[in-house]
Amino acid sequence: MNGPALSIALLVKTQDLVTACRSWLPSNRYTTVDLGLTADVKDFQAALEQKREAVDAVVIEQSLLEPELRQSLLDAGLLFPAVVVGEVMGRVDYHPEEVHLPVDQIEQLGYNVDAAISRFLRQGQKEERQEEGQALNVQGGVAVESSAWRLTSRLQERLGYLGVFYKRDPSRSLSNLPPDEQEELLKSLERTYRDLLLSYFRDPAAANQALESFVNTAFFADLPITRAVEIHMNLIDDFWKKLRLEGHKNDFLQDYRLALLDVMAHLCEMYRRSIPTEAPLAGTGASPGSLSVAASSEARRELSS
Fold first, then answer.
1. What's the confidence (pLDDT) of residue 289?
2. In the chain, what are the helix, strand and coil shares in percent, each to the nearest 5?
3. Lowest CB count within 10 Å: 94, 236, 282, 286, which one?
4. Are 117 and 57 in contact (CB under 8 A)?
5. 121 burial type by CB count under 10 A (0-12 exposed, 13-18 middle, 19+ buried)
């Protein structure tokens, strides 16, 4: 893309977080929209309302989404592709298509913004097919007028249905990042995967949000399947050593292969959705995405054997 293509509003009150968000939104792909916010949370809705036509997506600090503000945003039809930055708890903070990202994984913000826009567009098309021209139903039974979803059409016109999803930015692929950024991104992904493993059997809802965050970044950063497996194996090895030192049983760690299978399955689905209908699926004309799907399928067979 030439020049900033996506306008992102930061609904964030913590100054350090504002700085971090701007740092991890590459200027060649995003521009931040200044809402002129003060410390008063009540100003958020008014500021967002005033600049709604200039906003493509939002990054929201989770602590701001108190039930009253959330309901007020929904009632006003202020729904945007959203990345909610905060603790992963398995709940819906803003709307069902939001993406969650913990503060200690903010390095993945740009990739998760792309994922949030893709989910928003996909849901918008689904709703249009179900009930074209009528109100959309949002979780909790809140009806939002069709005019509130003009953003979907605007994004589709600018990006195309698969514009963000399929046309990933090659400059942000893991292999094309500077060495220091590669290292930061991989460490961030390890923290995400650790969250997934820690909550996988204990809190499935939170685990699912961690899984989605990992898969979103893995897809948009074009993470090799082998690196995903490596992250899994390294973390399991760390857990095994710690349990052994503490004198605990560790044979149950084999069960966590299910988490890796889930990651592979989700990645396969994202690659399947990203392949245009006219793209060849076999032979010399196969796309890089289809090759990655094949690699994922092979890895899944090996793990399940």
1. 39
2. 60, 10, 30
3. 282
4. yes
5. buried
Which amino acid makes up residue 157? E
- 190-194, 249-253, 270-274 — which one is most confidently predicted on average? 190-194
Q: Which of the four pLDDT bands, split at 50, 70 and 90, describes residue 22? A: very high
CA 122 to chain centre: 14
Distance separating alpha carbons of residues 233 and 239, to the nearest angstrom: 10
Secondary structure of residue 8 in the 3-state scheme: strand
What is the SS3 assignment for 162? coil
Parallel/antiparallel/unpaired status of strands 136-138 and 142-144:
antiparallel
Which 3 state secondary structure label does DSSP give 7?
A: strand
State how far the alpha carbon of 117 is from the alpha carbons of 74, 112, 135, 287, in Å. Answer: 18, 9, 20, 23
Q: How far apart are CA 59 and CA 150, in angstroms?
A: 19
| Rounded Cα gap, residues 20 and 24, in angstroms | 6
User: Is the predicted pLDDT of residue 297 greater than 90, yes or no?
Assistant: no
Helix (H, G, I), strand (E, B) or coil at 88: coil
Calculate the alpha carbon distances from 192 to 187, 216, 294 in Å.
Answer: 9, 11, 24
CB atoms within 10 A of CB 147: 8
In this structure, what is the dihedral angle of CA atoms 146, 147, 150, 151, given to the nearest 10 degrees?
Answer: -90
Say how many C-beta atoms besides its own lie within 10 A of residue 41's C-beta. 17
Per-residue pLDDT, averaged over 147-153, amounts to: 57
- DSSP assignment string, 280-300: --SSTT--HHHHHHHHHHHHH
- Identity of residue 123: Q
- Say which residues have a Cβ less than 8 Å from residue 163's Cβ, sequence separation at least 6: 155, 156
Question: Can you tell me the mean pLDDT for 183-200?
Answer: 96
291 against 40, higher pLDDT: 40
Return the number of other C-beta atoms located less than 10 Å from residue 178's C-beta. Answer: 8
